């Protein structure tokens, strides 16, 4: 990945594009069920994308509307269910909730966790600087998650290690 990014910075987009252009087979990351992914996103996300919103959302991006159109095509033949009218309405919950985010996460950024906290008064949101989508794999996050599960509470969690993690440096040869 670092060499692909370095190449793109130098104007060589071919290695990047080869992984995302139509007709290429892209293997899903291990552990991801594409059936589950489509079942959720086709019903809850893609069905809510307004055609008039797409152009503004992708303006100035390298791939344009490719990713949205790809997802829409994937959903064309996928079964969907109706969601209740209140499905997207937030409800206050008193259960303990631990939210772990990376500040470089383009999928579920920390601002979403902070937004959810107003409905989750018994929650804590921890943010790893320089981390992406799932910083839970770090030893620090694993310790905190284990503490949370064992205690069944966000009270007294030792989160001092959160600020210690640093993204590994990229080396380009």
Please describe what this structure looks like.
With 173 residues, the chain is mainly alpha-helical. Helices cover 36% and strands 7% of the residues. The chain has helices at 2-9, 14-18, 34-44, 51-58, 66-76, 110-116, 139-151; strands at residues 97-102, 123-128. Strands 1-2 form a two-stranded parallel ribbon. The radius of gyration is 19 Å and the shape is flat. The termini are close together.
Write the layout of secondary structure elements.
Layout: H1 2-9, H2 14-18, H3 34-44, H4 51-58, H5 66-76, E1 97-102, H6 110-116, E2 123-128, H7 139-151
Spell out the key features of this protein:
single chain; 173 residues; mainly alpha; two-stranded parallel sheet; 7 helices; 2 strands; 36% helix; flat
Shape: flat
Sheet with most strands: strand arrangement: 1-2
Please mark out the parts with pLDDT under 50 across 5 or more consecutive residues, or reply none. none
Overall radius of gyration: 19 Å
- The strand count comes to 2
Number of helices: 7
The ordered H/E elements are HHHHHEHEH
Sheet having the most strands: 2 strands, parallel
- The average pLDDT value, as a whole number, equals 83
- Structural class designation: mainly alpha
Specify the helix fraction band: 25-40%
Give the distance, in angstroms, between the N- and C-terminal Cα atoms: 12 Å
Strand content: 5-15%
